[in-house]
Amino acid sequence: MPFAVAALSQPASAYCLLVIGVAGLAYAGVARAAFVPGFAGVAASLLAVLAYWYEPPSVVGLVALVLAAALMNVEFLLPTFGCAGASGIVAGVWGSWRLLEHPTMLLTPLPWRIALAGGGTALLFAAIGSAWRRRTLPP
Questions:
Q1: 3-state class of 103 per DSSP?
Q2: Each residue of 91-126: pLDDT tens digit?
Q3: Helix, strand or coil, per DSSP, at residue 107
Q4: Within 13 Å, how many C-alpha atoms sit on residue 86's CB side?
Q5: What pTM was computed for the model?
Q6: The domain containing residue 122 runs over which residues?
Q7: How far is residue 92's CA from residue 71's CA, in Å, rounded to a whole number?
Q8: At what angle do helices 35-54 and 11-30 cross, to 10 degrees?
């Protein structure tokens, strides 16, 4: 296995690429004229697919992460008074935790796993919130 693929196929780096890809694509889908975040999202998503080629991810974690992105978009689209956003954050942290569950990640200290799961969800929420804010501001 080449060194670059071996470095990318670590669960933490593959997870980071996946979150960057989902956040970039969510930002580009909501914001108008966002070519650079869309391109970065596609590139990071393709690298995440390459990384997960050798070590398949948890399907439940992937579904939970996509559900989290959808719930966060619903929070900014409809008046749910924080219910959809809180549910999206919980789904994002849980899906991130499931994606980081791997025999090699069990050697990683627990605070690092918590920081990765929380940081990835915070990045996703910030990207979606920024995109909706950019969409509602006058041109």
A1: coil
A2: 999 999 888 887 766 667 888 888 999 999 999 999
A3: helix
A4: 4
A5: 0.84
A6: 3-136
A7: 10
A8: 150
- Cα 107 to the chain's mean position, in Å? 23
Q: What CA–CA distance (Å, rounded) separates 14 from 4? A: 12
Residue among 10, 108, 7 at smallest CA distance from 57: 10
Q: Is 81 left (phi over 0), alpha (psi -120 to 50) or beta?
A: left
Largest CA distance in the chain: 50
Residue with tokens 């004229």: 33
Kindly write down the DSSP assignment for every residue of 48-105, as one continuous string.
HHHHHHHSPPPHHHHHHHHHHHHHHHHHHHS--TTHHHHHHHHHHHHHHHHHH--TTG
What's the structural domain count of the chain?
A: 1
What tens digit of pLDDT does each residue of 40-83 get? Answer: 999 999 999 888 887 788 899 999 999 999 999 898 888 888 89
